[in-house]
Design brief:
390 residues, 9-stranded mixed beta sheet, 11 strands, globular
Length: 390
């Protein structure tokens, strides 16, 4: 049976006060954090630098650019246009002849309705030269994960996690391969749909965590070696690097519930605005990046749409080369084309995504191949029923 809207409405009405209490608590914490943020941003640079030098261990974030010369810790972009045509003219000025490249992935997880377990992983990429002299490129690569790939017999490893990790590694390998063959690195932007700091893997076992870290280090190293600008784009970030910095700087925030960086900054930002660049100085998995890379991931927050600002992560060499603003402008231009989200990432996602129809095609191909090879696949009655009905 379908859900009953009337019952949902009754329950929501009965629990209205839960939402009010949550919102008031959030606003109270936000006010305290924002007061501390203003105090930090008003601290003279020399004084703040001295305080930073005295801090031992990790403190969340270490500003690389002046906060005291900003407005509420924000660098205004001043990018406002009367209509979309004018904004696209700005895009053309900045992206013309600049090649953007992005990769995304999709998967069909192993199903309990099929034995032995089999998974399909597909990545798709989009290369856009932004010139009439060359065409854009869309393509895919796929891999079938067999029982051996899925490490059957090791119950400590959830199958879905193995599939997700393999997809992640395929995406990174494709990005690295692309970076290594770029002919004009100064006119190229590689976009990674995710964070360059793999905090999401902190809870994983040592082997899995190392696999994620090794993949990201290979990407960071390729970008630095070949001088190809790389951006990790996080559309909805729950990072707490700036708010962790405030907890070290101001005693007033220690006793209140934590808010995210994006919540802290959002009220101060207009479209296109960003924060001064900071070095990510986070506890946890970043310590496993090695002495070189654990200090060489920088970030800013960029207002890209009506929601919270996106988090932009980059290898530190971009800052040291003095091209940060150029790279951020390329990202802004991609976002304008994509209507609030980088067009290259959006298109790579559309290229890679596996739909319900693809799932059915995969299972039919699998069944036909198994029959030809005289291999036994066992399907549940439920799956057979679904295949017949769809």
């Amino acid at each position: 049976m379908t859900i009953k809207p009337s019952q949902i409405q009754v329950v929501l009405k009965d629990k209205r006060d839960h939402f009010d209490a949550f919102e008031k608590a959030q606003q109270s914490s936000l006010d305290i954090y924002q007061t501390a943020w203003q105090s930090l941003c008003q601290t003279p640079k020399k004084q703040l630098d001295q305080w930073l030098d005295q801090q031992q261990g990790t403190i969340g974030a270490r500003p690389l650019e002046s906060l005291s010369q900003t407005e509420h810790g924000i660098c205004p972009s001043g990018l406002q246009w009367g209509n979309r045509e004018h904004s696209l003219q700005w895009v053309n000025e900045h992206l013309s002849g600049i090649t953007t490249f992005a990769v995304d992935g999709s998967q069909i997880f192993p199903s309990k309705d099929l034995s032995p377990p089999i998974a399909l992983v597909q990545i798709g990429w989009f290369e856009n030269p932004h010139t009439s002299a060359a065409d854009y490129v869309k393509d895919i690569e796929l891999d079938v994960m067999t029982p051996r790939d899925l490490a059957l017999g090791d119950n400590s490893k959830p199958l879905d996690r193995l599939v997700n990790k393999h997809r992640f590694q395929m995406e990174i390998q494709r990005l690295v391969k692309y970076i290594e063959q770029v002919k004009e690195p100064e006119r190229c932007l590689v976009l990674f749909d995710g964070a360059l700091v793999a905090t999401f893997a902190d809870a994983y076992e040592d082997e899995d965590r190392k696999d994620y870290v090794d993949a990201l280090i290979s990407l960071l190293q390729a970008s630095e070696d070949h001088r190809v600008p790389l951006v990790g784009y996080v559309d909805t970030s729950s990072a707490h690097d700036l708010t962790t910095l405030l907890e070290h700087y101001s005693a007033s925030v220690a006793a209140v519930p934590k808010v995210t960086d994006a919540q802290l900054l959002n009220g101060y930002m207009q479209w296109g605005d960003c924060t001064p660049l900071c070095q990510c100085d986070r506890t946890g998995i970043l310590s496993e990046y090695g002495e070189h890379h654990k200090h060489r991931i920088v970030f800013t927050y960029l207002k890209t749409n009506q929601g919270y600002p996106a988090r932009i992560e980059m290898p530190r060499w971009i800052h040291e080369s003095g091209i940060t603003e150029q790279v951020i402008n390329w990202v802004r231009a991609e976002i304008i084309v994509g209507g609030g989200y980088p067009y290259a990432i959006e298109t790579a996602d559309q290229t890679a995504v596996l739909q319900t129809h693809d799932r059915q095609v995969f299972f039919r191909i699998l069944q036909d191949w198994a029959s030809e090879e005289k291999l036994q696949l066992r399907w549940s009655r439920k799956m057979m029923s679904k295949l017949r009905r769809r």
